[in-house]
Amino acid sequence: MPSLDALKLRLEEERDRLQSQIEAVADRPAEYRPTVDSYYGNHLADAGTDTFEEEKALALEAHLSGLLSKVEEALRRFEKGTYGICEACGQPIPPERLEALPYATTCVKCPPAAARRAR
Ligand SMILES: [Zn+2]
User: Fold this and answer.
1) Which residues surround ligand 1, an ion (CB under 5 A)?
2) In the predicted model, is pLDDT for residue 76 greater than 50?
3) Would the pTM count as exceeding 0.85?
């Protein structure tokens, strides 16, 4: 079984990695931002590309932020002493699952999506 300390360390590393990736996306080069020139200039094709790049960057930023909040939530659960306990049924989450997905908040039987699905 992976020790909780090892998992916590992995989560902390993951948090740092995500934070620096988010910063990298936020600090993306100015040419990826739509400019007045690309909107009002004579090159509409370029404007389309800029918008596409901007959308990709925003989607990536949203994806990374989502992951970061899961990792931060898992670290908070360590502090509360509820790490490794399924949020849905209160049973311990199997170590293999935590090993594969250190920020899992539910056991294999209780995926969050299933809890939200009306039956
Ligand atoms: Zn469960």
Assistant:
1) 86, 88-89, 107, 110
2) yes
3) no
